[in-house]
Design brief:
Length: about 70
């Protein structure tokens, strides 16, 4: 089975990547690979992967900046 892991370069993503490798072929997309703020690009990445399952652990952890409305990182 093919699985797409979004946010695979973060702390949770790295641990999941290691754990899920025994269960499925894991493809990882990190922020460097795809702009998660761009819905069209994210859809394209999911479609291109042809995964049967998508796990999203992408997160924005800079709390102060995250609370600033409409600020794009």
């Amino acid at each position: 089975m093919r699985l797409l892991l979004l946010g695979g370069s973060g702390q949770v993503g790295r641990e999941l990547r290691r754990s899920l490798a025994a269960l499925a072929q894991v493809q990882v997309l990190s922020r460097q690979d795809a702009d998660f703020m761009d819905l069209a690009r994210r859809r394209e990445a999911v479609r291109d992967c042809r995964a049967r399952l998508v796990v999203n652990v992408a997160a924005f952890t800079d709390v102060d900046t995250a609370e600033t409305p409409r600020r794009r990182i």
